[in-house]
Write a structure and sequence with these properties.
single chain, nine-stranded mixed beta sheet, 16 helices, globular
Length: 689
């Protein structure tokens, strides 16, 4: 990520835009509500329920209008003041908000004194909970945790007056559904309950108001209060409440599925065209690894192009129906790939094949890593890799340039290009099973009927989209993964350089949170939150059910383990125990004979922060899990047989032996200093609200 900082310098002198907390004039948002009663909404730019900050509370139906052309019957319509200086185009296609959105509001001088936090999910379902997320149609309470924005309270640059109050659902919300949010009994540093805003008090107490948006919401709020009170809350204790609708499933998946179906129709049953451009054999001078790798193959395969150009920084081409269309001038793109065939593969004993998903802004060459090469030869797998366009090495520069232009909406190129990137991976999988499997030279060394997906870090995260949309594999393994991105980012060391740039132009901490919440709406089209609920069951059209291995490293500096648990809950996977801890909402099992499972490995770190800051203590275990011999055995067994086994045992072949049978802990790898004893030390605020 160091290159990022070189790119940043050119943008530092661009002036930051101003922040405003004024309210807009109410327009008509029409009626709607994907569950519960049909209610009317005003269309607002800024909501006087939170007069201190335009855009809160978020998400909210007051930022939508009726639209009969969408699957949900509504369309998002952000106003200019909420958008700051951003272009609305990326959000104009949305028919609701993300089912993995952070839920954001501002209560002046709020503390987390009454919040149970990420370790007390049960609080959110209890009668005494200070917060509520309610499914307006089913009446179900949604498990979640509440917190304040710790980053706004820490030096350097602490601004406690900008600390948001935030809710994070720990399960994926339903698509095209209406949710009601409420806070009560939240206190300031002196322990006093925070008073509601003037606008909300008028709605709650039935008092007169000169604000047009208050008067137009009287009927709406009677519906909201009725549903909240049905859960045992007293109306007079509520400090703020509102509702929002999640986007439809069609909103999230239609572009990529349309591209997939169009591409495969053009490609035909014989599979995609490919060209081998060069081959390195183990006998060649300078061969990468003669002991493990027989052939290193470089080539390209042809994919229909739906972008304005094949290069980083391009955008999706949409037709008059708002659907992706093929580039008329450049209808096909030649996508580079690399394949490694191990020495263990022979015509009599061909290798199973793995499509590998690389790490953050990485590249296809990551399949060359030494631990992969030895795994390929020991267990007889051939690896194929291609860049995930949109979040590959060339895209990092394009994304950073967009951010340094001071216009967050310019990051649209990343979300757009990820559609093409996923299509490329789907086509490469098809190539591995069809045209390349018939290659006159190398086809004899691979098994077309044993094709799997394996991704780590970004590849583990984004692999969920491939599993949900491909009909060419039955199993996949996702390493150090999680969802959604809006939960991961503020808790990842990888996001820090990008966050610094965002804050140059949007210096209010609340704007940081709002922008990432808005970004989640766009990410849902190209990340697990829009697809993971379709992997195991409720499969998308033309796709078979999958079995998935999910693994996380406790204390990971880059990918938060709690986010991995959300992905596992979304797939209703059991927790294959490693003798470390229970996981909320997951059934614990000792082993599995079939199906998906989630498991965790420990590397001796002192936990992980419960607040929204990255883990920075000790050594980062992010890259350690994949190298453990117990993990390698587990991966091979799962891919081959679909079974889940805990191979952790003292005295195994691993150079860092585990502490006890069935306890997957490697404390010798912690790298902790003597004073690094509690990750919660990272959550101590420098200033209070």
């Amino acid at each position: 990520m160091n290159r990022t900082w070189l790119i940043l310098v050119s943008g530092l002198l661009i002036s930051a835009c101003s922040e405003s907390g004024t309210s807009g004039t109410a327009g008509s948002g029409g009626t709607g509500g994907a569950g519960g009663s049909a209610v009317a909404y005003p269309l607002l730019d800024c909501d006087p329920l939170v007069p201190e900050f335009c855009g809160y509370p978020f998400p909210s139906n007051v930022y939508t209008v009726e639209d009969s052309s969408t699957a949900s019957g509504r369309r998002v319509s952000f106003g200019d003041e909420l958008l700051r200086n951003n272009d609305s185009t990326p959000w104009d296609y949305s028919d609701g908000f993300s089912a993995g959105s952070p839920i954001l509001t501002y209560l002046p001088r709020a503390t987390d004194a009454v919040f149970g936090g990420v370790t007390d999910i049960d609080q959110s379902l209890s009668a005494a909970s200070p917060t509520m997320i309610l499914d307006a149609q089913t009446g179900d309470l949604i498990p979640h945790f509440a917190q304040v924005d710790t980053q706004a309270l820490q030096l350097p640059g602490a601004k406690p007056e900008e600390s948001s109050s935030m809710l994070r659902p720990v399960v994926r919300l339903r698509d095209n559904a209406r949710y009601i949010v409420a806070f009560r009994n939240v206190t300031d540093p002196e322990g006093a309950a925070i008073a509601p805003s003037e606008a909300f008090a008028a709605l709650r107490d039935g008092t007169a108001s000169n604000d047009e948006s208050v008067e137009t919401r009287r009927e709406l709020y009677e519906d909201i209060f009725e549903k909240i009170e049905a859960k045992g809350w007293s109306r007079d204790e509520i400090q703020i409440a509102w509702d929002f609708n999640t986007a439809s499933d069609e909103n999230n998946t239609r572009w990529l599925l349309h591209m997939r179906d169009t591409a495969f129709e053009l490609i035909g049953e014989d599979g995609p065209e490919y060209t081998i451009t060069s081959v390195e054999e183990s006998t060649d001078d300078g061969a990468i690894d003669p002991t493990n790798i027989a052939f290193r193959i470089f080539g390209t395969f042809r994919v229909p192009l739906f972008m304005t150009s094949p290069e980083a920084g391009s955008l999706l081409l949409l037709d008059e129906n708002e659907m992706p269309m093929i580039n008329e001038e450049t209808p096909w793109a030649d996508i580079p790939f690399e394949a490694l065939i191990p020495q263990s593969a022979t015509a009599e004993n061909p290798a199973a094949t793995i499509e590998y998903g690389h790490g953050l802004f990485g590249e296809k060459e990551q399949i060359q890593s030494g631990h992969f090469r030895s795994f390929m030869n020991e267990y007889n797998y051939a690896f194929f890799g291609a860049d995930l366009q949109g979040m590959s090495d060339p895209d990092e520069e394009a994304v950073t340039a967009a951010l340094t232009a001071g216009k967050f909406s310019s990051v649209q190129t990343m979300w757009d290009r990820l559609h093409q990137g996923f299509l490329n991976h789907l086509v490469m999988l098809r190539m591995m099973k069809t045209s390349f499997a018939r290659d006159p030279m190398f086809g004899q060394y691979i098994k077309a009927d044993e094709t799997y997906y394996h991704g780590i870090s970004q590849g583990g995260i984004m692999g969920a989209v491939i599993l949900a949309t491909s009909a060419d594999i039955d199993r996949g393994a996702l390493g150090v993964m999680g969802q959604p991105y809006s939960f991961l980012l503020f808790r990842s060391v990888d996001f820090e350089p990008f966050r610094v740039v965002i804050r140059l132009f949007y210096p209010d901490y609340r704007t940081d949170q709002l922008l990432i919440g808005m970004a989640q709406m766009l990410w849902d089209r190209v990340e697990p939150n829009g697809y993971s609920h379709h992997i195991v069951e409720n499969n998308l059209p033309g796709v078979n059910p999958k079995e998935v291995l999910m693994r996380d490293a406790i204390g990971d500096h880059q990918v938060l383990t709690f986010a991995g648990q959300i992905m596992a809950r979304t797939m209703k996977a059991p927790h294959l125990t490693t003798g470390l801890r229970d996981v909320w909402g997951l059934d614990t099992v000792e082993s599995t004979e079939s199906g998906s499972f989630y498991t965790e490995y420990d590397f001796g770190l002192p936990g992980q922060p419960y607040c929204n800051v990255p883990m920075t203590m000790c050594s980062d275990p992010h890259g350690d899990l994949r190298k453990r011999e117990a993990a390698r055995k587990q991966l091979d067994e799962f891919l081959r047989n679909g079974t889940g086994t805990n191979y952790c045992a003292p005295g195994d072949a691993d150079e860092q032996q585990v502490t006890a049978l069935g306890v997957c802990s490697y404390p010798l790898l912690s790298g902790c200093e003597p004073d690094e004893t509690d990750a919660q030390d990272l959550c101590i605020p420098d200033e209070l609200p």
